[in-house]
Design goal:
The chain is an alpha/beta fold. The protein has eleven helices and 19 strands. The chain binds nicotinamide-adenine-dinucleotide and zinc ion (ZN) (2 copies).
Length: 369
């Protein structure tokens, strides 16, 4: 069938919205008509080359839509079902899935190759195969994905809100609740208040943090951060140090969550300085793949018994956490509405990413008609 998608043809080029050809779903796959797709910073990494990829590629990995057709051997989905995509497939059977870490599913090995999980392509453009971001490609009106990437949801939640739990909200919330293990009374710093950081603030608040220090150079982000639960805001890591020291009587933050647009190794020593004895730094933001250097005091690490850990998809399990977070939204405990700053048409995707670079959005969302 014919559809339309935003394609990146090479690093540092604009998204090109053009017609694509889509094959029907094969065994275990479904055809989904997208309703909405969030514009996460991770797709920007495809454009800048911070994440290495193979072009041409359809971007987008934070999507929700309606199943239109199912291939053979699809057992749990049928046409008409509402789904949110997980940006890492969850097979349920590999050692990671079986141990309750489906964010580390062995099928994640296929993600950056840009193909379907079986290594072939369903998407084509100008007579050639197209790659897709993390087996999804949600910057497309339709896509074909494996059922392992789909989580069926109830139909009461608008899909433009539901798409947010496909990446940003689950990643940020999980970074605080699961990776950082925020406990009641903790002091928490969140560095970078985009989609990930705003959700991390909400996770820290729900986990009972006492003080939540939000750090972002953009004034609008600092103005919005208290809406998500931040108690204090600062424009930079350096400018946060003295006030956090005063506020915590020198104890600093038990948990620090890194959610900047692009992580920078040279900032790690100052991030560690915000962290308390026995405290934990959670690195959720993506650093350029090519970066190998980090400025870090390993003496501080040992003598203050600090930890630095990575966090992929907030350490979450999509089949539990996606419905769970939507339920927290229903109960009024998780704010999804305030996460969307602007809505765009697919044709306006480049404006949406420019707004992200300019710091105008917590999250921009593409709405399909
Ligand atoms: N680990 C994962 O599973 C995972 C999942 C999704 C996204 N990510 C990554 O998380 C990061 C954040 O994504 P996002 O979509 O929220 O990005 P975003 O661009 O919407 O927000 C990033 C924020 O960081 C702020 N910032 C930039 N430099 C800063 C600095 N030095 N100090 C403080 N704030 C700073 C920006 O002003 C912006 O508000 C990206 O690197 C993204 O690729 C990781
Ligand atoms: Zn993302
Ligand atoms: Zn698995």
């Amino acid at each position: 069938m014919q559809s339309e998608a935003a394609i990146c043809w090479g690093s540092h080029t604009e998204w090109s919205v053009e017609p694509i050809e889509l094959d029907p779903p094969k065994a275990g796959e479904v055809l989904v008509k997208l309703a909405a797709s969030g514009m996460c910073h991770s797709d920007e990494h495809l454009v800048t080359g911070d994440l290495r990829t193979i072009y041409p590629i359809i971007g987008g990995h934070e999507g929700a839509g309606v199943v239109e057709e199912v291939g053979p051997e699809v057992t749990d989905l049928k046409p008409g079902d509402h789904v949110v995509f997980g940006f890492i497939p969850a097979c349920g059977h590999c050692p990671s899935c079986a141990r309750g870490s489906s964010n580390l599913c062995d099928n994640g090995a296929a993600l950056l190759a840009g193909k379907q999980i079986d290594g072939t392509s369903r998407h084509h453009v100008r007579g050639q195969d197209l790659n897709v971001m993390v087996c999804l490609g949600t910057f497309s009106r339709h896509t074909v994905v494996n059922q392992m990437s789909c989580v069926k949801i109830l139909e009461d939640i608008p899909l433009e809100l539901a798409c947010l739990v496909g990446c940003g909200v689950t990643t940020g919330w999980g970074s605080a609740v699961y990776s950082a293990e925020v406990r009641p009374g903790d002091n928490v710093a969140v560095i970078g208040i985009g989609g990930i950081g705003a959700a991390a603030i909400q996770g820290a608040r729900l986990a009972g943090a006492e003080r939540i220090f939000a750090i972002d150079p953009v004034q609008m982000k600092r103005e919005l951060a208290p809406k998500f639960g931040a108690t204090h805001t600062y424009p930079s890591i350096e400018e946060a140090f003295d006030p956090i020291k005063a506020e915590t009587w020198g104890r600093m933050c038990q948990k620090v969550i890194c959610a900047m647009g692009v992580g920078r190794g040279e900032l790690m020593a100052s991030i560690m300085a915000l962290t308390s004895k026995n405290g934990r730094v959670v690195v959720t933001n993506i650093h350029p793949m090519a970066e190998k250097d980090v400025k870090l005091s390993l003496c501080d690490l040992t003598l203050m018994q600090k930890q630095i850990i990575g966090s992929l998809y907030g350490d979450a399990n999509i089949r539990y956490d996606i419905p769970h977070l939507l339920h927290l939204y229903r109960r009024g405990q998780l704010d999804l509405d305030a996460m969307i700053t602007s809505r765009y048409k697919l044709d306006d995707i480049n404006q949406g990413y420019q707004d992200m670079r300019d710091g105008r959005n917590i999250r921009g969302v593409i709405i399909y008609d």
